[in-house]
Amino acid sequence: MKSLFLPDSPLLSCGSAPACKTLPDTLRLTVWNWHKCKHPLWQKDFLALCAQSDLFLAQEVQLSPVCRQTAAQSGLHWDAAISFLSPRKKLPTGIAAGCRAPAKQILFDASAIEPLLRIPKMTMWLVYPLANGGQLLAVNLHAVNFSGLSVFKYHLHQAAQRVHAFDGPVIVAGDFNVWSEKRRLEMLGMAQALGLQEVLFRPDLRTRYLHRPVDYIFTRGLRVCSSRVQNLHSSDHRPLQALLQIM
What we know:
The protein is of the alpha+beta class and 247 residues long.
């Protein structure tokens, strides 16, 4: 049965106008699950993270009026892919990418469905222009959670499709919901097949479920200059940050 809370249009934009025409050759990446912006300190932490970011990939984004107002102060332009409207207030909820440069192409896939809630779990592919004349592909993923392994594998396969054919640097990041060893191995197998390298964190303060980190960054064609996990508590996930240089 189809959900009653699907949006008319999955793609939305908000926030600031793009401040730059291209991303720099050394860029600051943040990846964070916002937990629907529920925490009273979310706005403060969000704006501080935006000030440290050229590209920001977010999951569990809920575009309430307060969230939209805060996004307008972020210095980033936001493109969102909406999975559903919240049942009571009909607030758009999904994933989003904020960037200082405009995306040249935005694609999304909503074919992976959470079995219990019957709502799509979104994947976004965004192509950004680089200062060196090339392009970067950013893949923002909030993996299907309450499902068996076959649905999870399908979602990873869908996310991987456009990475295979892309000739340029790639970032694949988000909340992978790898709360089991079988899921983790499927994710790592996908990364290996795509030639992606996992960004490591020391100390590794990433949020864990069943003792396993669930948030990841993978790259291809990028050198990791530094990485860290911000020890913030305004969401149920801690933000990941990396300084990446085009190779």
